[in-house]
Amino acid sequence: MATVEEPRTFIRPDGKEKVTGTGRYTADLVLAGELVAKFRYADHTHARITRIDVTKARALPGVLAVVTHEDVPDVLYGGMVKDRRLFARDTVRFEGDVVAAVAATTAAIAEQAVALIEVDYEPLPVVTDFEAALADDSTLVHPAWEEYEGNESLGRHHNTVGYTAIVKGDADAALASADVVVRGRYVTDPVQGVPIEPRAVIAQWQGDKVTVWTSTQVPYAARGGVAHVLQIPESHVRIIVPLLGGGFGAKCDFHFEGHVAALARAARRPVKLVFSRREEFFAVGHRREGMVIEFESGARSDGTLLARKARLVLDKGAYCGEGGFFSEMAAMHALGPYELENVNIQSSLVYSNNQPSSSIRAPTAPQVCWALEQHMDELAAALGMDPIDLRRKTLIETGSVTATGQVLEQIAMKETLEKAVELIGYGQELPEDEAIGVAVGWWPCFAANSGAYVKLNPDGTGTIITGAQENGTGSVMAMPTYVAAELGMQPEDFSMLYQDTDAAPYDMGSCGSQTTFNSGRAVIAAAVDLRDQLLDAAAEQLEASRDDLELVSGSILVKGSPDKSVTIAELAGEGTFHGKGAGEVPFAPEALAEGCVGQSGLESFHAPQLIAHAVRVRVDRDTGVVRVLQVAAAHDCGVILNRMGADGQVYGGVVMGIGQALSERTQLDAEGRHLNAHLTDYKLVTASDAPQIDIAWIETDTLNAGPKGSKGVGEPPCVPTAGAVANAIARVLGARVHQLPMTPERVWKAGQ
Amino acid sequence: MSMQTFTTAATVEEAVAAVAAGARPVAGGTDLVVGARTGKSTMPGSVVAIHRVAELRGVEPLADGGLRLGSLASHAEIAESDDVCARFTALSDASAIVGSHATRAQGTVGGNLMNASPAMETGGPLVCLGATVTLRSPSGTRSVAVEDLWTGPGKTTAAPDELLVGVEVPAPAAGTGSAYVRLEYRRQMEIAVVGATAAVTVVDGVVTAARVAMTALSATIRRVPDAEAALVGSDGGSAAIESAGAAVAAAATPISDVRGSADYRRAMAAVIARRAIKTALSRARGENA
Amino acid sequence: MKVAATLSVNGFAYPVELDPGTNLLAAVRDVIGLTGSKEGCDDSECGACMMLLDGQPVNACSYLALQAEGSEITTVEGLADGDTLAPLQVAFLELGGVQCGFCTPGMLVSATALLADNPSPTEDDVRIGLSGNLCRCTGYDGIVKAVLSVAGSS
């Protein structure tokens, strides 16, 4: 175990184009003859469509295409449950359902045409209270749910699209024997990803093949989605992602590439869609879900944790997308990184007529962690124990067995806690309106397939071809350093071809903090393959044993004979050397998972990342306004390969976590429509609200890790921040805020 | 409807003539263009840009101790003016916290006042400092007290052919201090959910004059006579401040919306008013505040 | 009815024809063809479109393009001196001020205006000054450090 050296400078290969404004994002591209796309969204959040008439819209001069469900194959799509049509056919189920799309010569004409589309509806009862939607007599959001094709493990029933139970021991009996029992109910509002780049899609057909430039985090999923909804081969779809202006999960999954491809095909012209900020809020099928979370825990008076019960209800919104695993993910976070003998966790993911929720940076974790970590502090208070001491006693450590039966090896949970507590100065005397709060959390790695090529150019430089997607974190930008290290070359020697589905083998994309873990592994494997080829060629040319060769500074040398060498440029010839690789996908550790229902593969946490955040806040009791003054973030993310990049994830993730804690919330009206789909009233943290953040990395030798012992980094930093802020607020107020975000009004009210 | 005509006025006369002919004046664009882009308002069919009119510029101290602001005076200019900061402090408080530095560089006091938002920052300070605006039309010029300028959100008493050309703020009496305080969820980039201004004159330890105005708590920014009455004649001590704050809360007719409930706003009205009054009193007494 | 005008951007004069309601961002991106400045919102909240107008910061999406005739407009493309990056651009790269890069053009322009107005800002001055530029990636840490490093070195 080791802490990591101070940051060293890492200049991102895409940096110069970004600071000079010469880099191109999707909306910056212009194709000759391109048209403007606009959508006609649902006029009700739940209604039966009785008539769609596009006659007037089609007749408007300047309109080249109007597309509805009649113009595309009648297929359902969806990552884990196929429950959605590209264009609504019989029913609209949320505010952002697309009923029709228009392509026209100007935005003004397209908007006019959209308004000319006539749609008649029979309104249906709107399901916005997702907790009530659990009841068997509630209105069904998807009456045909049983006919849908979906992942068998989800335990779908009625409005429930995912159900997970984790049961171990006898929680009720253990609670009955506990000295202290605490209960709490916590409610969270929906939250948005808010990449600063609103999404954009351009589609252009050439013959029967379509190229789509799109701001997606998952090009290969987008390719599969377009092929599926248009019923064409994947080889007829090429997805290119220009520079991506952030994602945070909001640009995961297949979204609007299908609509634009359909429009471009109908219009016989390239078509460009650029979302307004309002659309980026309400129309996307990815936001962080609202939840209702109930906890009950019991302990012996010495702090021994005896049992935990939890009931979680998650708002899935109108469609499943790729988020079907959320009930299990949330259940795992309800366990949290604690040793527990008696557990009963019930977690339900429920359809509603609200905006669909799906992965946003560490999906489900910040909300459940916020609730659990408050609950643990409440337990500590009931026990009369310091909350840090209670965690010291109850957290997992190397060798612990989780409630799902996973044996944890080489983790630094307690070490991150100690480090965070030390960095923040826990226990120091503070002004009466300030306090420190601490929270801990965990997050798994996601092992997946990926493939890559590294080819050599005639001048001895190289090109890396990867399916990995750079969303801004720098995880793809760091790949030349890994390849250069394998080949004894410099990172600057490599160009990269990426974000083009016709170029590289499949990659999962920028999601699950997986880029370095999987794409990095593949790129390194390709570099090793190329190195082996170069060593073979050099051995022949130098008439030396391959084992005696080494790659140094762009040359291959015979060890001990400095005069016998050949440069890589000399070896390269006309540039036919190319390595390819995928690397071996590490396996997730087994979990017995006895008593678990609804397993989607998360019942063991692969190479878990452990996180402890400590924050110091100031609370204005009279107004409820909270300022976060200082954050100490300690993470075990395995071996850190790029300190500057990893730090950047923590700075950004913590600040996102502060937004979730205090100000970010989507407010919906009684019918599930957005009330604040704009940045004036959806409040992100500004530079003046972002605190000093101190970072520590605890490196461990992780089993089944990614390349060079690494784990993921991108998602964990936003997991425990809100919980730590909550615990700090409670210390100042002497009262708890049970709603997230903890807005000034809610804090003020709690303090009354 | 989209904008059909755009002209740029070089002189006040040109600007006034264009407004009289039905053009909407634009200076920094921070309200007009944003309103049209977000769909809160439509882009006017005819616009006259007045930002090049030199006579409408300036933040000038007057010989009698007063202050003249051209309608084009930007929030940045106002906030950075030593005169404003020293003697018209509430106005400086307000201009310093409008939007971002880009909004402060482009946004003008004239636009702020004529946009007539009940949440505008400079309104309360100008009301409490007793400012008047000069409205000019082809038929002449008239002065209107700022507190008589608004009739509702987005509505003013200015005639359709009148252009706001300047703001005059009288010299504050000796012993006067003023402050504007806004409830701030974030430290920057806020729109007032609750705001309060106080301007008080303290002579020999007694409050001899007081003006208190509330922002974002009724259909227009307006003074609260009961709060002022609670302060005048008092020692400006905590009891007087408390009852003035309560008077502001009682006078408030807040709404519930995404920014806060009416109950919260009413409670904050008292808190923020107390803070504004306290700071104004400290400044009046020459204390460091 | 389009109006003929000449806009001066980064030292070049561009003759353009614009609908009177065109905002400066649309004119510079779509008509002149400089796409460095970004559109991230429509209510002057994100700052991704920020340009300098005679040295003063402006949210170009909220400013009528025709009003800018007669002013010198500076965009992110005008910050470097030929191939030599401006110190702020270098500092953003070296100190972790750039991730996805979508806020970067507006942020750099904003920081340029900030330092022109206040060459020796405190950290809090920088944070206040950059509050009109939202960044979702960096937590502002690298950006603030970069601006302070340039302020300290000049």
Secondary-structure map:
The complex is a heterotrimer of chains A (752), B (289) and C (154).
Chain A: E1 2-3, H1 15-20, E2 35-41, E3 47-53, H2 55-59, E4 63-67, E5 91-92, E6 98-104, H3 107-116, E7 118-123, E8 160-168, H4 171-176, E9 180-188, E10 200-206, E11 209-214, H5 219-230, E12 237-240, H6 257-267, E13 271-274, H7 277-282, E14 291-299, E15 305-317, H8 326-335, E16 342-351, H9 365-383, H10 387-394, H11 413-424, E17 434-443, E18 452-456, E19 462-466, H12 479-487, E20 494-498, H13 515-542, E21 549-552, E22 555-558, E23 561-567, H14 568-572, E24 578-581, E25 596-597, E26 609-620, E27 625-636, H15 643-662, E28 692-699, H16 721-733, E29 739-740, H17 744-751
Parallel strand pairs in A: 2-13, 9-29, 11-12, 15-16, 19-20, 27-28
Antiparallel strand pairs in A: 1-28, 2-6, 3-5, 3-7, 4-6, 8-16, 8-25, 9-14, 10-11, 10-13, 14-15, 17-26, 18-19, 18-24, 21-22, 22-23, 26-27
Chain B: E1 5-8, H1 12-20, E2 24-26, H2 32-38, E3 46-49, E4 59-61, E5 67-70, H3 75-80, H4 82-87, H5 89-95, H6 101-106, H7 109-115, H8 123-128, E6 132-137, E7 140-145, E8 150-152, E9 155-156, E10 163-169, E11 176-182, E12 195-203, E13 206-215, E14 222-223, H9 225-231, H10 238-251, H11 262-284
Parallel strand pairs in B: 1-3, 2-3
Antiparallel strand pairs in B: 4-5, 5-10, 6-7, 6-10, 8-9, 11-12, 12-13, 13-14
Helix pairs in contact in B: 9-10, 10-11
Chain C: E1 3-9, E2 12-18, H1 24-32, E3 50-53, E4 56-59, E5 72-74, H2 87-94, H3 104-117, H4 123-129, H5 141-153
Parallel strand pairs in C: 1-5
Antiparallel strand pairs in C: 1-2, 3-4, 3-5
Helix pairs in contact in C: 2-5
Note the beta-strand portion of chain C. Answer: 15-25%
* CATH topology annotation of the largest domain in chain C: Ubiquitin-like (UB roll)
Side by side, the strands of the main sheet of chain C go 2-1-5-3-4
| Assembly context of the chains | heterotrimer
CATH class of the largest domain in chain C: Alpha Beta
pLDDT averaged over residues of chain B: 96
CATH architecture of the largest domain in chain C: Roll
The gyration radius over C-alpha positions of chain C equals 15 Å
Rough outline of chain B: globular
CATH level-1 class of the largest domain in chain B: Alpha Beta
Number of helices of chain C: 5
Helix content of chain B: 25-40%
Strand content of chain B: 15-25%
Supply the number of structural domains of chain B.
2
Strand line-up across the major sheet of chain B: 4-5-10-6-7
